[in-house]
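Figure 3 (text version): structure tokens given as input.
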């Protein structure tokens, strides 16, 4: 082990999967550091929106981490009317995260530092889309954007849409480019790991209740402590269980799949007249990537 110098941040930008076989529980824990700073730096969002996007990105990493196959994608989309935020999109693929928020600065100005979820979103819904690689089994679940937080809305998604008892905790510590966001997700698969048919939905789960109590004991500070590795966190919470299987961590990164080719394909779907209106005197159409704010000059 080296000295103090490079220990800081050992637990950042990582995602760890684990199972507790004796309880039919699987879990994910993730912590974002520099990746979060880089995603936020691409936008000029006010603090409230930064905090919201940070929470959303932690959730996206946790739920995206449930995907098994390489090339699979998870998209979380919040769409709403009558509040500050009209649209928020985050996605995850192979450890890469990205996200953006469309919001109304004028409405936000009247809300103070810590607005409630209904003030942020008005009436809205949260859509979770899983696109497993190498299959056509894209599936989407939609739940109302309700409850005290985005994290609570995501828990409601699992309860209502998937009927899987799920506990999620998230925390964010906003410090500009040194911001940290962390989270823990545990869920009960009553009849074993996924892929097996669930014969019946049990209402009471003594084994689940036990794990939920342990997971519930996680402290905010532990979720966002850069020096506490995720493996240590799992151990702290569940070390009294006879067996906890921890998989190798996934390195998280800021990733965007925008490219000239991508926007050429998007523009090709517009009618010719529309494209004519968009291009400048040199036949160039300027397109912004909403996720990373990069500008592309597309020759039409
Ligand atoms: Zn991009």
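Below: residues designed for each position.
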């Amino acid at each position: 082990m080296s000295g103090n110098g490079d220990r800081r941040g050992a637990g950042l930008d990582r995602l760890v999967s684990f199972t507790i076989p004796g309880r039919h529980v699987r879990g994910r824990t993730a912590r974002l550091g520099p990746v979060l700073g880089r995603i936020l730096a691409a936008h000029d969002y006010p603090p409230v929106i930064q905090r919201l996007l940070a929470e959303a990105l932690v959730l996206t990493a946790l739920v995206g981490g449930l995907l098994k196959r390489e090339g699979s994608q998870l998209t979380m989309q919040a769409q709403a009317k009558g509040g500050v935020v009209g649209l928020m999109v985050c996605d995850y693929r192979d450890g890469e995260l990205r996200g953006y928020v469309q919001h109304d600065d004028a409405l936000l100005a009247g809300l103070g530092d810590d607005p409630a979820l209904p003030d942020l979103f008005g009436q809205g819904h949260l859509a979770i889309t899983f696109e497993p690689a190498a299959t056509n089994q894209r599936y989407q679940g939609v739940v109302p954007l309700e409850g005290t937080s985005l994290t609570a809305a995501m828990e409601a998604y699992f309860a209502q849409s998937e009927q899987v008892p799920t506990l999620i905790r998230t925390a964010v510590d906003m410090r500009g480019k040194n911001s940290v966001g962390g989270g823990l997700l545990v869920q009960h698969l009553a009849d074993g790991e996924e892929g097996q048919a669930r014969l019946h939905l049990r209402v009471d789960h003594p084994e689940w209740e036990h794990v939920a109590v342990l997971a519930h004991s996680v402290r905010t500070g532990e979720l966002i402590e850069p020096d506490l590795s995720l493996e240590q966190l799992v151990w702290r919470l569940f070390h009294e269980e006879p067996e906890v299987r921890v998989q190798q961590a996934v390195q998280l990164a800021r990733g965007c799949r925008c490219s000239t080719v991508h926007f050429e394909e998007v523009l090709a779907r517009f009618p010719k007249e529309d494209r004519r209106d968009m291009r400048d005197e040199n036949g160039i159409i300027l397109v912004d990537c909403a996720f990373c704010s990069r500008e592309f000059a597309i020759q039409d």
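The first strand starts at residue 14 and ends at 20.
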